[in-house]
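Title: Comparing notes on inverse folding

I've been comparing how different people in this forum approach sequence design from structure. To keep things fair, I'm posting one structure and asking everyone to reply with a full sequence. Here's the target:
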């Protein structure tokens, strides 16, 4: 996907007042019409990128959805300078807690840190790792949480870039379709459906493929009883067996029909984790354990270079070696919700790094030859970094 011109700069050409008014009114009715047509889709919104592009333009013409930050005190830049032409993006997980007693201030702290980092190292886009809205997702595309926990929080000019969300289990307690529909009301939220792909061109002809999966939907096919899934009594058709089979078929098709330079998968739950809670989850929720094993086997067999997840509120890196390459696993559910405990170091196994002492996000820098990840804290400082080289087949950083 070549990023459309509206992603590069949002200043509109000068025009007379009357022309502006006519354009704004026309754009408004375009957005309204698209919303009316799409609200009839109750279980799986499938919005086209053109729908999203036109809606974003219409919202921007009306002044946008985010009040801007007038001033922000930032520390000195601590993110290493990226090579010229590199693609930079941020990842934010488990963040939508403003107003709750489980990390509200931490979310606001991280928002300041990510704003400072974005000012110093402008990301092309930002991805979310699920659990966007605690505790029970959203009720509709007009839910006040979109403004209160998203637009009003991540409002710095440097964050006015495309946001590509993924879904978490708490999002599934609400209307997951509404999170796609919000793409037509925001000027940066870009989620055509519960699972989707973005392909980003690299400077020297390569491609970065980002695959956004719905972990809870993938899990659906592995449920064999009425009590083997997290939040099972609250899950709907969007997490059922039919949806799960469709999602798996789509995932097989997407990974077999292309050969990108880098393949990155964004999903909510971890495939490898040393969080204390993770040791108990597979026993409590057998379907989740079966799904975790199946997804990991598939990911490693599909030549995925990097899996990025939230869910566990810790910072972690794990790595596995596969024929001709490696698969790295990043856990970064540190965007706001209270942090989790870790298991003893002797139980880490494939895990190379784990910490639970800070909230934050991850910053990723991609070239045709390297994929670098920086774990950033709530003050915008680098806490840990690692690099994947395309010509390496060993977990040896």
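Reply #1:
Here's my take.
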């Amino acid at each position: 996907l070549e990023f459309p011109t509206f992603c590069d700069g949002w200043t509109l050409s000068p025009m007379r007042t009357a022309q502006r008014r006519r354009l704004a009114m026309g754009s408004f009715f375009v957005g309204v019409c698209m919303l009316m047509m799409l609200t009839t889709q109750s279980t799986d919104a499938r919005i086209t990128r053109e729908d999203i592009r036109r809606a974003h333009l219409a919202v921007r013409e009306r002044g946008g959805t985010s009040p801007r930050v007038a001033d922000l005190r930032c520390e000195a830049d601590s993110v290493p300078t990226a090579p010229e032409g590199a693609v930079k993006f941020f990842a934010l997980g488990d963040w939508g807690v403003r107003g709750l007693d489980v990390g509200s201030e931490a979310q606001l702290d991280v928002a300041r840190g990510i704003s400072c980092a974005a000012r110093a190292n402008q990301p092309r886009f930002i991805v979310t790792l699920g659990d966007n809205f605690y505790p029970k997702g959203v009720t509709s595309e007009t839910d006040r949480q979109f403004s209160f926990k998203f637009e009003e929080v991540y409002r710095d000019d440097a964050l006015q870039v495309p946001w590509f969300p993924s879904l978490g289990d708490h999002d599934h307690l609400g209307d997951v379709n509404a999170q796609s529909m919000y793409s037509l009301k925001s000027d940066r939220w870009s989620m055509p459906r519960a699972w989707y792909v973005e392909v980003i061109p690299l400077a020297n002809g390569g491609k970065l493929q980002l695959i956004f999966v719905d972990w809870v939907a993938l899990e659906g096919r592995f449920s064999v009883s009425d009590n083997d899934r997290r939040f099972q009594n609250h899950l709907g058709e969007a997490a059922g067996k039919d949806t799960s089979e469709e999602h798996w078929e789509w995932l097989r098709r997407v990974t077999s029909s292309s050969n990108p330079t880098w393949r990155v998968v964004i999903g909510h739950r971890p495939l490898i984790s040393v969080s204390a809670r993770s040791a108990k989850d597979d026993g409590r929720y057998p379907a989740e354990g079966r799904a975790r094993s199946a997804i990991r086997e598939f990911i490693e067999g599909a030549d995925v270079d990097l899996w990025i997840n939230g869910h566990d509120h810790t910072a972690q890196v794990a790595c596995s070696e596969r024929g001709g390459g490696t698969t790295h696993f990043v856990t970064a559910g540190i965007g706001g919700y209270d942090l989790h405990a870790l298991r003893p170091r002797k139980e880490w196994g494939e895990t190379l790094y784990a910490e639970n002492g800070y909230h934050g996000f991850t910053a990723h820098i991609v070239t045709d030859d390297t994929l670098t990840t920086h774990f950033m804290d709530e003050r915008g400082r680098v806490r840990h970094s690692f690099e994947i080289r395309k010509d390496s087949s060993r977990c040896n950083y």
